Amino acid sequence: MLTVAREPFHFCTRMHLSSLTGLKASNLKELLDVIRDAPGSCIYHHTHRFLQQHQFLSPEPPNDFSYWVREVLGEEDLGEQLASIDVMQFPTIRSLREKIIETIENFLGQDPIAQKKFARTGEEFVFIRSISFIVWTDYFAANLREFVESLKKVTIDSIYFHIFESRLRLEKSTNDFSSWLETSLDAKTLADKIATLDPYTLTLEDLRMKIVRLAERSLEGAL
Asked: What is the pTM of this model?
C-alpha cells in the first residue's frame, strides 16, 4: 500500500524575463563593485543564463563573468578561476556572490595592475537581471506513484523551477522534490539520492528521467 503524503505536492512552472539594469563595468574594479551591490537576480542570471536558454543541451556550469574577464579583458588566469567555481557547491545566491567577490579580490590583490585594463567601448559588461513569474500547474501528487506520473508530464520549466530556482533564489536547503519526499512521505533514501544528482551536468530531460527512474525503483522496493 502506498504511503499517502502528509501534504500533496503541487507542481509549479515558471515564465522568465531578462531585464536590463543599467549597470555596467569596464574594468575589474568596476565589475567587483557592481557585483557587490547588484540584485541577487543579476548574479543568478549571469551564473545560470546558459541553463535557462539552452535547456536541451548538457552544459558546463555557466559563468558570464568568466567569459567577459577572459575574452574581453584578456585575463586568462582570473577567467579560469571564475570558471572553476562549482555553482553546485553553493546553496544560495548570496554565498555564490561571496565566492565570486573573493576570487576577484584575491586576484586584484596579487595583480593590482589588472584593474587598469579597460574594455573597449561597446564591450563593457552589461548587468542583466532575471525576472521569474511562478504559476501553479494542474498537476498534484498525493503519493509516490502520482509524483512519478506527474513528473513525466510537467514541462521542463517546472523541472527547472523545482530543482534550481526555488532552492537558490528562495535559499532553501535542498530542491523541492527532495524536501517533499523526506518531509511528507518519509522517503529519505529517495530524497537523498535525488539531492545528490548533479543537475548542472545533465539536460533537463535527462534530469527528469533520472528522477523518474529513481522514484520507480523506489516504488518497486529496490531502494
From this structure: 0.74
